[in-house]
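Raw record, unedited: LIVCS family branched-chain amino acid:cation transporter
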Amino acid sequence: MDKKSIAVVAFALFSLFFGAGNLILPPQLGFKAGELWWLVALGFCLSAVLIPILGIVAHSKLQGTMFNFAEKVSPTFSLVYCYIVYAISIALPSPRTASVTHEMAIQPVSDTSSLITSLVYFALVFVFVINRSKILDIIGKFLTPAILFVLLLVLGIATVTLDLSFGPSTFDSPFSYAILEGYQTFDAIGAVVVGGVIIISINLKHKQADYEAKKRLIAKAGILAGLGLFLIYAGLMFTGALFQDNFEADISRTALLRGISLATLGNVAHGFLTVLVSLACFTTAVGIVTGTADFIKGRFGESQKAYTATAILGCVLGVLMGQFNVGYIIAVALPALMFIYPITIVLILLNAIPVKYTSRKVFRWVVLITILFSVPDFLGSIGYGDAIAPFTSWIPLKNFHMGWVVPAMVVFIIGNFGKRK
C-alpha cells in the first residue's frame, strides 16, 4: 500500500473517533490535573485511543459486523450485547450532542430553553435520518480539518501567550480517573459499532490487495490516527492545565472550552469554533440514530416501518434527555459505562490478539468473569459502594473502579495454560 492510501485511511479513522464529545472532556481533565496533566493524558489515551484503535484492528481480522465481536461467546449473548450497546447509544451520547450544542452555541447568546433547542435539533436529525442525505458526508469531510485547524490555533496561542507554569493536581488517583473519563468518549463502542464501515471501504477500494496487505494498511493507519488523537488530547489537557488559575474550580466542561477559545481566539474565531462544534454534534447524532435504525431494520426483515419507528424513538429520547445539562448526562452515563465498557474492552482485546489464544471456551470464561467483576463497580457507581465494600474489598484494583481487570487476565492465562496442557 502506498503512503497516500495509508494517509487516507488514517484520516478516516481519526474522523471516526474525533467528535464534539472528545472536545469537551480533555480540557477539564488538564484543568483539574495541573502539573500532572501528562499522567492524565496517558490514562485518558489508554481507554480513548489505544482501545478504539485495537477495535479497528480486531475488525480487520474479523471482516464482519458488530455481531461477530461477541459471537464466540454465543449468538444469543452477541444479540443481547448489540441491543444494549445501541440502546445506550441513542439514550446517552446522542442526546449529549444536543446538550453540548445548547450550552456552546445557544445558551451564551439567547435565553431559549433547552426544550426548544432539542425539539428543533432532533426534528432536523429525524429529517436527515429518514432521507439519508449525503450532505452529512460532505460536511464531515470539511468539519474535522476545520476543527483541527482552530484547535491548533488555540494550542499555539495558549503556549506562546501564557506563563508555562502549572498548579497542583486536584485528583486523588489521576491515572485511573482519566481512564474512566476516557469511557465517556464512547470511542471503544464506536470502534465496535461503525469500525466495520472502514473495513468495508478498504475492501471496496483495494479489491486486489491480499489479507496481509490490508492488515498492514490498517496497522500503519491506526498508528498514525492514534498518534494524532494522542497529540490533540494531550494538547487540550496541556492547555486546560495552563488556564487553571483563570476560571472557577467548579466550571463546567463546555464553559471551560468556551472560555479557553474566547481567551485565545477572540469573539469571531470563537464563534467559528462554536458553529463547527455544533455541526460535529449534529453529524454524530445523525450517525448514531441512523446506525441504530439500520440495526433494528435488519433484525425485522429489512422493515422500513421498523427503521422509521426506531428513528422516531431515538429522536424522542434525544429530546427528553437533551433537557439535562452535559455534566448530568455524563454522570448518568457512568453506571452504564461501568458495566458495558469492560465487556467491550475485553471483546476488542480478545478479537485483536492471535486466534490460537482465544478459543470459544476462553472467550466465554473471560467475558463471564468480566461481567461478574464489573457488577461491584456498577453498584458502586449508583451509590451502593459502601454496602458491598465488606464483600468486595479483596478485589485487586477495586479502589480504582477496575476490579474486572485482574480476574479477566487470570482466567485468560489459566484458560490458555489448561488448553496447552
